[in-house]
Amino acid sequence: QVQLVESGGGLVHPGESLRLSCTASGSIFRFNAMGWYRQAPGKQRELVTTIVRGDSKNYADSVKGRFTISRDNAKNTVYLQMNSLKPEDTAVYYCNAFRFQFGRRYDFWGQGTQVTVSS
Predict the structure, then answer these.
(1) Sheet bearing 67-72, strands edge to edge
(2) What mean pLDDT, rounded, does the chain reach?
(3) What is the DSSP string of 46-112?
(4) In this predicted model, what pLDDT tens digit does every residue of 58-116 receive, in sequence order?
(5) Is residue 32 within 8 Å of 85, Cβ to Cβ?
(6) N or C: which end of the chain has fewer CB within 10 A?
């Protein structure tokens, strides 16, 4: 059973930074990619960023230049460094991992961590 445990959320002021962590129960090499999604109140969950097994990274336009995804394979952990935070970044952030097996995609999710950006 795959478990993803997030940490690092909190309340910050606009312009400040936060770093989220997502630790998997076991090697992250099992996954084709890992990433972060977020869901603001009243909105659909949206993709923020992904990092694939070959280290290629993708970002939503709204966070490019401000957010950075990285991973530590030895710690089975993926990080999301969030700089220059804006009120519109306020959301519950979810860690995601997926893998393809027998032609199907299997997604795994963390429990979510709240990020609030407010003055």
Answers:
(1) 4-7, 18-24, 77-82, 67-72
(2) 95
(3) EEEEEEETTS-EEE-TTTTTTEEEEEEGGGTEEEEEE-S--GGG-EEEEEEEEEEETTEEEEEE---
(4) 999 999 999 999 999 999 999 999 999 999 999 999 999 999 999 999 999 999 999 99
(5) no
(6) N
| SS3 assignment, position 24 | strand
76, β-bridge pairs: none
Residue with tokens 């962590």: 21
- The tokens for 28 are 């992250």
Q: Which amino acid is at 7?
A: S
Residue 82: name the closest of 46, 25, 38 by CA. 38
Structure tokens at 22: 């997502």
